[in-house]
Amino acid sequence: EQARVILAENESTSEEILVHFAKKGTPTIRESLAENPVINTETQRYLLETGGDDIKNALARNIRLLDAIQIELARDSNWRTRWHLAKNQNICDRVQEILASDDDVDVRAALAENDLLLEKYINLWICDEDYKVRSGLAKNRNLNKNQILVLADDLRQEVQKSLAGNPVLTDSLQSHLLRKRVDDIDVELARNKSLAVALQAELAQYNN
């Protein structure tokens, strides 16, 4: 079955075979198929109507999911499906609007991290009462300098820690976080692939 699972997720597999998998495949095959971005809209709809939570979760991760199906999944009763959708890098504005009011904080936090997040939600959530939402926002790569500065001095270290790993930080903002001398923040800075060489040396306690 492993070969058929791989075939179901292969974007070069023929449409005829993909349609066959949708109708006759095992649950594992259908789950792999649901995430394949080349499946046509009829197959997406069929999987939505005949699939359980695992298939809906996979559909929610599909980067070419039909807007109408995105909207249905945004209203799904399963929070994990909505969470996967919130992380999708091709969600439409209407889905953002729905998920921005989600009752589950983990769903909102996942949306906050999404680089597609609309500016109005960034501005709204920069001081959100729940630190999980602010932590998600701190990972967003479309923050401007002023927004980053607010998060860099957040009262919760979890938010600063999330921000430390963000590759869009300038050298001065990286240095600002390093000056806090917090181990968890230092660890995330060390993981940041954009960390300035001078700060790498400081973290390594290295001198020529």
Describe the structure.
This protein has 208 residues and is mainly alpha-helical. Helix content is 64%, strand content 0%. It has helices at residues 2-9, 15-24, 27-34, 41-50, 53-60, 67-74, 79-87, 93-99, 105-113, 119-125, 131-138, 145-152, 157-164, 171-178, 183-191, 197-204. 34% of the residues are buried. The mean pLDDT is 96.
Instruction: Sketch the topology as an H/E string, one letter per element.
Output: HHHHHHHHHHHHHHHH
Distance between the termini: 56 Å
Mind describing the biggest β-sheet? none
Structural class: mainly alpha
Using only C-alpha atoms, the radius of gyration works out to 20 Å
Low-confidence stretches: none
Mean pLDDT: 96
Shape: elongated
Helix and strand arrangement:
Layout lengths: L1 H8 L5 H10 L2 H8 L6 H10 L2 H8 L6 H8 L4 H9 L5 H7 L5 H9 L5 H7 L5 H8 L6 H8 L4 H8 L6 H8 L4 H9 L5 H8 L4
Helix pairs in contact: 1-3, 2-3, 3-5, 5-7, 6-8, 7-9, 9-11, 11-13, 13-15
What structural keywords apply?
mainly alpha
Quick overview of this protein structure:
The protein has 208 residues and is mostly helical. Helix content is 64%, strand content 0%.
